[in-house]
Amino acid sequence: MTLPDGYRFRPLTEDDRRLVVELDAWAFPTSSETDDVLGVPSPLSWDRTTGIEADGFDGLAALHASYPFTGFQVPGGTLPTAGLTWVGVHPQHRRRGLLSAMIDQHLADCMDRGEPLSALFAAEAAIYGRFGYGRAADDLRLQIPRGAELRHVPGAERHTVRIEAASRDRHGALVDALHRAAGVAPTGAPGLNRPGWAERETEELQASYWADPPMYRGGREPRRIAVVELDGEPRGYATFRRKHAWENAGPRGTVLVGEAVALDGAAARTLWGVLVDLDLMAEVTIAFLPVDDPVQHLLLDPRAALPRTPDNVWVRIVDVPAALAGRTYAADVDVTIAVTDMRLPGNAGTWRLQATAWGPAKAERVFEDPAISLDVRELGAAYLGGMTLASLAAAGLVAEHTPGALARASAAFAWPVKPVCSWVF
Ligand SMILES: CC(=O)SCCNC(=O)CCNC(=O)[C@H](O)C(C)(C)COP(=O)(O)OP(=O)(O)OC[C@H]1O[C@@H](n2cnc3c(N)ncnc32)[C@H](O)[C@@H]1OP(=O)(O)O
Where are the catalytic residues (predicted)? Predict the structure, then answer.
């Protein structure tokens, strides 16, 4: 879709940062002053940031950007992925097709850059399905009461814990290494990675992540970190901020955990043992955990932690054959899949996927009746292995034409480790 008359795209540079911050404040209302925001490092990759200008209008009418995730985890490997972000349209210019034009521009850019996938966090869940993005992962959010009992894990007692003021100088390398390891081998078993896991790959993302301006703390303390070690080697960490509160019953502070990562069950047990037992705190809240995170097995009373599982990362398949061939499958599969795609006609048609379990895969266009059919949105939803094709078929969104094909394809597309991205981009 092209831009309406009177609008034009303009590549943005760092010199446009004030315009970007001002537009962003129109799209996402904030009490922060523009000058204060300008004092904080920007996470944007400027060569992937594009604005829209309008005739007779000062400032930007709209904006979108993407992050380069060269190592985005997909089942059994990684694929170059564009992390779509900072999508915003000025309220005066909304519902005229600017987002639609930006998505088409973004998908064309992905094609040009050789990124078979685009991924995003949706500000509102109803926005992106129409553009072919599927809800590919959910995450687990918990409110764990102080003192929640945890099951014993052998070896946990051998770990030690450091609790410190978080800083990039002191903890940047440690956090990166553990975060990467948790994406590549969350269970320790080779080949079983965590689909959806993205690292903060660019210097801009790193600088932005570690910046800790008081205006973004919401009345909480500066960022803290708990590091779990075994024989002096880091095995897990959690970033967190406490907030003090005195109520009639006494201290009722809350701990907001940013990211909790552990390389095995014993380290996870130690980490959570610390988080649920901080003085003066009544509750620990966390979001963006995988729905199969160890903590939901370790909590003796998981119900008391009020679990919720809203949508996490959404995936848009930009290049169907590259994406199909670019992941590993959990079962042997030889299936023909008819795909519809309203925005990228090159994806439409029937594709034959052939793969051996945990081995190589290939995909090629064929001209024959398909065994199953679906829209590219559903393929994106199933792609990371978190949503099954069977469940999408139960909702009437995937059709089976050859008996047995759905069961086999669904088993092959599923993945033993649930997808998630641990931070919002
Ligand atoms: C990955 C990220 O960055 S997520 C952040 C998204 N940004 C925000 O939420 C900030 C506040 N909102 C906005 O800036 C804008 O309203 C946007 C970006 C959500 C939409 O931009 P617009 O230019 O108004 O969208 P556009 O006119 O292209 O609409 C395309 C279609 O999507 C629909 N749509 C747009 N926004 C929404 C929404 N929030 N919920 C449901 N449908 C929506 C429109 O109704 C339209 O449908 P139609 O084709 O059936 O008529």
Answer: 128, 425
Alpha carbon separation from 12 to 8, 18, 49, 50, 88 (Å, rounded) = 12, 11, 6, 5, 14
From the list 7, 72, 121, 425, the catalytic residue is 425
Which of 67, 69, 128, 288 is labelled catalytic? 128
Query: Do residues 318 and 326 make contact, with C-beta atoms less than 8 angstroms apart?
Result: no
Query: Which of 92, 116, 134 is where one domain is finished?
Result: 134
Q: What is the pLDDT of residues 42-62, one digit of tens each?
A: 999 999 999 999 999 999 999
Quote the ligand 1 centre to 127 CA distance (angstroms). Answer: 6
Is residue 145 domain-shared with residue 270, that is, in the same domain?
yes
Give the mean pLDDT of 255-279: 98
Tell me: the pLDDT tens digits for 135-148? 999 999 999 999 99
Task: Output the CA angle 89-93-95, nearest 5 degrees.
Answer: 85
The verdict on ipTM greater than 0.90 is yes
Residue 191 lies in a domain: no
Global pTM exceeds 0.90: yes
Check which CATH number belongs to the domain holding 379 and give it.
3.30.1050.10
Gap between the Cα atoms of 423 and 425, Å rounded? 6
Residue 345 pLDDT = 97
Does 228 count as an annotated binding residue?
no
